[in-house]
Write a structure and sequence with these properties.
8 strands; alpha/beta; eight-stranded mixed sheet; 195 residues; single chain; 4 helices
């Protein structure tokens, strides 16, 4: 008799566990992300911001910011749930971080040493079983500076374990991928400015 009750308890616990897993897997509410870029703590962009002040920072103007994607709010899926955000506000806040570098000065009016136009080509996170992958790709058109006008495509990605398919994980992965892109843009801006 005692063994029979033990089996019932285990069966009841197993049923409760399966029910909880079914409920979690049925959650199809969208994952909503912040529109603010938050760089990883080890970001080189933050280290550059603490660099010594340059005598004459390079003035950079963002002439255009465009989204080439079909749905400007869609940023992929994680755990079968759609990821949504104000993607252009997120990208704009990331580009604004470039102004933290004392060798760069973002200007909206007046003369600029370099003028950039940025097109968002891709920004998404996907989960596959226990992994997630975030990818960001932008095309930047440069005008002015020490080099002739041209375009450059930048790509950033982050691949890591997908623990719980939450918004924090999706946000951190996309921020890490965008951080890669911004670091390369910053490096090219400094090169074009001769700094």
């Amino acid at each position: 008799m005692r063994m029979h009750r033990g089996r019932r308890r285990h069966a009841a616990a197993l049923v409760a566990l399966v029910a909880a897993l079914v409920l979690v897997s049925c959650n199809k509410e969208p994952v909503l992300l912040s529109s603010e870029f938050d760089p990883p703590l080890n970001s080189a962009l933050l280290r550059d911001a603490r660099a010594a002040q340059s005598p004459a920072p390079c003035r950079v103007r963002l002439a255009a910011l465009e989204d080439d994607r079909v749905d400007s709010q869609y940023m992929g899926e994680i755990g079968g749930r759609p990821v949504r955000a104000d993607t252009m506000a997120w990208l704009r806040s990331g580009l604004a971080l470039l102004g933290r570098n004392p060798r760069l000065q973002l200007v909206q009016t007046g003369p600029a040493d370099v003028v950039i136009s940025v097109r968002l080509l891709k920004a998404y996170v996907l989960s596959i079983t226990t992994q997630k992958s975030a990818n960001v790709a932008v095309k930047v058109r440069y005008a002015g500076g020490a080099t002739p006008p041209d375009e450059q495509v930048y790509r950033g990605n982050d691949v890591a374990v997908n623990w719980v398919s939450g918004s924090g994980e999706a946000q951190a992965a996309l921020n890490s991928a965008l951080n890669d892109v911004l670091y390369e843009i910053e490096r090219d801006l400094l090169s074009r400015c001769g700094r």
